[in-house]
Design brief:
Number of strands: 13
Order of helices and strands: EEEEEHEHHHEEEHHHHHEEHEE
Pfam family, one: GHMP_kinases_C
Domain GHMP kinase C-terminal: 255-331
CATH architecture of the largest domain: 2-Layer Sandwich
Strand content: 15-25%
Keywords: ATP-binding, Carbohydrate metabolism, Galactose metabolism, Kinase, Magnesium, Metal-binding, Nucleotide-binding, Transferase
Helix content: 25-40%
GO molecular function: ATP binding; galactokinase activity; metal ion binding
Radius of gyration: 20 Å
Shape: globular
CATH class of the largest domain: Alpha Beta
Mean pLDDT: 95
CATH topology of the largest domain: Ribosomal Protein S5, domain 2
Strand order of the largest sheet: 5-4-6-3-1-13
Distance between the termini: 6 Å
Bound molecules: adenosine-5'-diphosphate, magnesium ion
Number of helices: 10
Low-confidence stretches: none
Family: Belongs to the GHMP kinase family. GalK subfamily.
Length: 349
């Protein structure tokens, strides 16, 4: 049995596809894959969360488009790894799906680690992360960066992962939440990341970078000059978000290295306002939860994930957590809560 965690991105949203910085950490919750080798070359895929929808396919027949639905993620992982043997794979998870906590990458990475071990593939974790990303992008058809798979495979307990999405280099940053709680609030709104808005934002960022003559918005060093050079107000807002968000990631990493997690609140809330007003990917229930959390005395709060659905995180002093939870539940009765504990990366159980 192999387990891979979900993740919360503490800060750094929509920076990944602009070659920028992100700062995820692994959750205690995740996806577990029970995997056995088979000698008949068949890949059999089942999930306790997808009752009755088992999939059987000859590993030799794996190709993008050959498997749809949830099974595309594990089948795509076998495909991306070039796994030619057979395997029976049973999935179980305690991680909500589609709520921005990266259940898809946890699923891919649990399977990737399992097939790497059972097939004796000998790949290191960055290579497994890249294979899992290809599974999601090329096989399941969801354009995604490397953050989610890197978080699932490279994080460590008590730390966040400062990941440079251009170089692929990462560093462990201590995330000491003593006296604090990081609440994850699932707003119950489900996103469709494969859908139009995500692709539209990526395209806007690419257009802005081209107009500014830089390889990616990561390279904008003078925000004022960049905003002055762009005539389209929409592109100006997108650039404003990406550039300031990268700075917020660096500032957050600096505070964490100083052991000052309690001071992160303003950065988290600024990130939310930027995502709401400049990048325009927030959704009404997220704004409601952030508002309720701040009114109840949370130190900061923001939406997480690509937007249009999923979860919000709220940083609270531990003695205020109960009150913050109550106020959020009153504002949005269907909100579901989990407490984020910075946890280890994927591993064999
Ligand atoms: P997120 O990664 O934020 O949870 P995604 O839309 O990227 O959201 O991925 C969710 C999809 O991943 C689900 O719709 C399903 O296809 C697949 N998935 C995740 N966890 C499981 C699971 N335990 N069993 C089956 N499929 C799963
Ligand atoms: Mg996902």
């Amino acid at each position: 049995m192999w387990h891979a965690p979900g993740r919360v991105n503490l800060i750094g949203e929509h920076t990944d596809h602009n070659d920028g910085l992100v700062l995820p950490f692994a959750l205690a919750q995740g996806v577990t894959a029970a995997v056995a080798r088979r000698t008949d070359g068949v890949l059999e895929l089942r999930s306790l969360q997808a009752a009755g929808e088992g999939v059987r396919i000859a590993a030799a027949d794996l190709a993008p488009g050959a498997v749809g639905g949830w099974a595309a993620y594990p089948a795509g992982t076998a495909w991306a790894l070039g796994f030619t043997g057979g395997a029976s794979i049973m999935i179980d998870a305690d991680l909500p799906r589609g709520s921005g906590l990266s259940s898809s990458a946890a699923l891919e990475c649990a399977v990737a680690l399992a097939l790497n071990d059972l097939g004796g593939l000998g790949l290191d974790r960055p290579a497994l992360a890249e294979a899992a990303r290809r599974a999601e992008h090329e096989f399941a058809g969801v354009p995604c960066g490397i953050m989610d798979q890197s978080a699932a495979l490279l994080c460590s307990a008590g730390h966040a992962l400062l990941l440079d999405c251009r170089s692929g280099l990462s560093a462990q940053v201590p995330l000491d939440l003593t006296g604090l709680d990081l609440l994850v609030v699932d707003t119950g709104v489900r996103h469709a990341l494969a859908g139009g808005e995500y692709a539209a934002r990526r395209a806007e960022c690419a257009r802005a970078a081209a107009a500014l003559g830089v390889a990616a918005l990561r390279d904008v060093t003078d925000l004022g000059a960049a905003l002055g050079a762009l005539t389209d107000p929409v592109l100006r807002r997108r650039v404003q978000h990406v550039v300031t968000e990268n700075h917020r990631v660096e500032a957050t990493a600096g505070l964490l290295r100083a052991g000052a997690a309690a001071e992160l609140g303003a950065l988290l809330t600024a990130s939310h306002l930027s995502l709401r007003d400049q990048f325009e990917v927030s959704w009404p229930e997220a704004d409601l939860v952030v508002d309720a959390a701040l009114r109840a005395g949370a130190r900061g709060a923001r939406m997480v994930g690509g937007g249009f659905g999923g979860s919000v995180i709220a940083l609270t002093a531990a003695d205020r957590t109960a009150r913050v939870r109550e106020r959020i539940a009153a504002a949005l009765p269907r909100a579901a809560f989990l407490t984020a504990v910075p946890s280890p990366a994927a591993r064999r159980l």
